[in-house]
Amino acid sequence: MAENKSSVSKASSYQEIGEYWDAHDLGEVWDKTEEVKFEVDLKSDVFYYPVEISLSTKLHTIAEQRGVSAETLINLWLQEKVNQEVGK
Question: Is the pTM of this model over 0.85?
Fold first, then answer.
């Protein structure tokens, strides 16, 4: 970890930073903080597709019976179908 990574806690590792904030409140050191600006560029590798409500309900029921999430079941079934189509 870079030196001065945590100016408030004076910690030298992420573990020490966590321990510091477990024991302290930001209100105790608010006057030592300063405003910063940063940009976050979130790019998702997940795409969402609409599913009819009745189909979604059935899907959730089947997934629950199989002990997996609906998302996992959808991905498994889609992968099977894509593999079939690509293999043609």
Answer: no
> Which phi and psi (to 5°) does residue 48 adopt?
-110, 135
What range defines the domain where residue 65 resides?
53-87
Q: If you search the block for the tokens 């001065």, which residue do you land on? A: 4
Report yes or no: 32 and 7 within 8 Å, Cβ to Cβ.
yes
Residue closest to 75 by CA, chosen among 47, 52, 53, 54: 47
Query: How many C-beta neighbours within 10 Å does residue 9 have?
Result: 16
Asked if 1 contacts 12 with a C-beta cutoff of 8 angstroms, the reply is yes
Number of domains comprising the chain: 2
pLDDT tens, position by position, 28-64: 989 888 888 888 888 888 888 999 999 999 999 999 9
